[in-house]
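Run log, item B.
One chain of 127 residues. Sequence copied directly from the ordering sheet:
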Amino acid sequence: MSNLPILELMLGSLDLWPRYILRYLFLVSPSPDTLYDIALFFFGNDIPLILALDFFCECSGVSPTSDSLASIRFIYFTFHTNEPNRFEYYDMTFGGVVRSVNRHVTLFENNGQIPIGFGDDIFPLMS
């Protein structure tokens, strides 16, 4: 059974998610930077770790490596136990990038520039 319906109840339709997160989940091979952004997106939006991991596994075209899953776990653990005093992530409640400073959230200044949902440019053109 897919975790997508649960995530859409918690975060809203995939059509409202930032395009870069959709790319990282469905199209791009995981790298340390993409895993960090995915983990921070889910962590910042209060998605439980197990749900984030399960959905990440669902979205991957092939089974994710144990290193990828360990990276997401480590990022969650780091933010949960020793939250940095400043970080930025796309907050689905506000519908934009927020800056969290010492647990106080403020909207970030570049919010009008973040593409949302599945647009025509999400899939590379086939030639």
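Observations after the first pass:
- The CA atoms of residues 39 and 72 lie 6 Å apart.
- Residues 4-84 form one domain.
Flagged for discussion on Thursday.
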